[in-house]
């Protein structure tokens, strides 16, 4: 198993959803759910007793460099607790502003609470690493895209709560009976699905803006082509366009063709982003996501 140091590495964060789609079902009710938004509902009492929040994937955490062995649940939970106890809102806002994303302090704190200290969401290595990069001043456009998704998701979850009374942060979860926890988790799954699908639109709106900005307007794209060009499958698999899943939309072949089309970006943009000569739009999008604006 290759070693992985939390907070480092070139991998993109769990922006919106880096893996499969958020479809409840299967083991624990979450087969296919993105790793960064997965919970282990099969052992709610144990998770509460240990103070953990959600499921973690040891293969994605790799080895603890301090021990040379795979990270243990207690070690990962110690990282979670340490992160939760750090006040880093100002640092996060500063880095997001540098990357062109405006998120208010209350939303940043809500995102952090939801991702790292709520019963509905996994303690994801991808999310932890992205958060650490951003608050250390080493964030990329992909990291900001992740926060754009999470901010939109928080807004939608609050709207759902205002409409239904559901507390998506599950602040009383540890004191609930098993039956009440099961009901809360089922409600969370439904609220999450609704919020997540909408947040995919916001994150790809942000990505499309960054593509146009960083190419000096030479590669104008809208939300849907940006989602198709994104190397992650989440937008393609779960974004809804005109009430239709993106992959089933009549314009999907056109968006695919657009992503494969080649563009001239000029030497200045090429020097900034570093794509190959005469890149495809998908290659430009990939380089924009990697850009650190530093």
Helix content: 40-55%
Write the H/E string, N to C.
HHEEHHHHHHHHEEHHH
Strand content: under 5%
Number of strand elements: 4
Low-confidence stretches: 1-36, 38-52
Number of helices: 13
Kindly report how far apart the N and C termini lie.
32 Å
- Read across the widest sheet, the strand sequence of neighbours is 1-2
From the alpha-carbon coordinates, what is the Rg to the nearest angstrom? 19 Å
| Class by SSE composition | mainly alpha
Largest sheet: 2 strands, antiparallel
**Overall geometric form:** globular
Nearest-integer average pLDDT: 83
Biased composition (Gly residues): 1-31
Biased composition (Basic and acidic residues): 34-55
Region (Disordered): 1-72
What report would you give on this structure?
With 294 residues, the protein is mostly helical. The protein has a domain at 27-217. Helices cover 53% and strands 3% of the residues. The protein contains 13 helices and 4 strands. It has helices spanning 44-50, 58-61, 73-84, 89-98, 105-116, 125-135, 141-164, 178-214, 223-229, 234-238, 252-260, 266-273, 281-290; strands at residues 63-64, 69-70, 240-241, 244-245. A two-stranded antiparallel sheet has the order 1-2. A hairpin with a 2-residue loop joins strand 3 (240-241) and strand 4. Helix 8 crosses helix 13 and helix 9 (223-229) crosses helix 11. Mean pLDDT is 83; it is low at 1-36 and 38-52. Residues 1-31 have a biased composition (Gly residues). Residues 1-72 are annotated as: Disordered. Residues 34-55 have a biased composition (Basic and acidic residues).
């Amino acid at each position: 198993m290759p070693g992985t140091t939390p907070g480092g590495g070139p991998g993109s964060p769990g922006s919106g959803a880096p893996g499969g789609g958020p479809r409840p079902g299967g083991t624990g009710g979450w087969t296919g759910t993105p790793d960064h938004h997965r919970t282990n509902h099969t052992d709610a009492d144990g998770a509460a007793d240990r103070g953990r929040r959600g499921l973690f994937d040891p293969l994605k955490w790799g080895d603890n460099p301090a021990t040379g062995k795979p990270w243990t649940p207690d070690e990962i939970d110690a990282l979670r607790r340490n992160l939760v106890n750090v006040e880093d809102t100002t640092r996060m806002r500063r880095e997001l502003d540098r990357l062109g994303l405006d998120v208010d302090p209350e939303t940043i704190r809500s995102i952090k609470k939801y991702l790292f200290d709520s019963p509905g969401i996994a303690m994801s290595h991808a999310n932890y690493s992205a958060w650490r990069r951003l608050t250390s001043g080493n964030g990329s456009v992909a990291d900001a895209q992740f926060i754009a998704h999470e901010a939109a998701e928080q807004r939608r979850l609050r709207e759902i709560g205002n409409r239904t009374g559901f507390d998506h942060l599950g602040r009383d979860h540890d004191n609930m009976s098993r039956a009440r926890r099961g009901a809360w988790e089922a409600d969370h799954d439904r609220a999450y699905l609704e919020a997540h699908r909408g947040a995919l639109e916001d994150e790809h709106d942000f990505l499309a803006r960054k593509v146009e900005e960083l190419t000096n307007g030479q590669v104008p794209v809208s939300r849907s082509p940006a989602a198709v060009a994104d190397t992650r499958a989440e937008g393609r698999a779960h974004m809804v366009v005109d009430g239709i899943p993106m992959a089933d939309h009549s314009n999907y072949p056109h968006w695919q063709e657009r992503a494969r089309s080649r563009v001239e970006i000029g030497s200045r943009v090429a020097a900034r982003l570093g794509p190959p000569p005469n890149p495809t739009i998908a290659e430009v999008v990939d380089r924009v996501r990697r850009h650190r604006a530093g």
